[in-house]
Design goal:
single chain, five-stranded antiparallel β-sheet, 7 strands, mainly beta, 1 helix, N-terminal domain of TfIIb, 73 residues, two-stranded antiparallel sheet, globular
Length: 73
């Protein structure tokens, strides 16, 4: 049985980095601003410029909760 998933990239700190499916990114919106999100591959976050928030991606799953989001500086 072969693995059909794309291999994860491994960063210098040893953490696994997973690319997000472009179709998923198109479908997701910020729960606060209801605006679009951009993907920050290095930080593994979905960024809402309108809300000034970054939502984490953990184990390939976007955590779209305001309480989990990081406020952008």
């Amino acid at each position: 049985m072969s693995d059909q998933t794309t291999p994860d990239a491994v960063s210098q700190d040893g953490a696994h980095r997973t690319d997000i499916d472009p179709k998923l990114l198109e479908a997701l919106i910020c729960p606060v601003s209801h605006g679009p999100l951009t993907y920050d591959r290095k930080a593994q976050e979905l960024v809402s410029k309108r809300a000034n928030l970054a939502y984490p991606i953990r184990d390939g799953v976007p955590i779209m909760l305001q309480d989990e989001a990081r406020v952008l500086e």
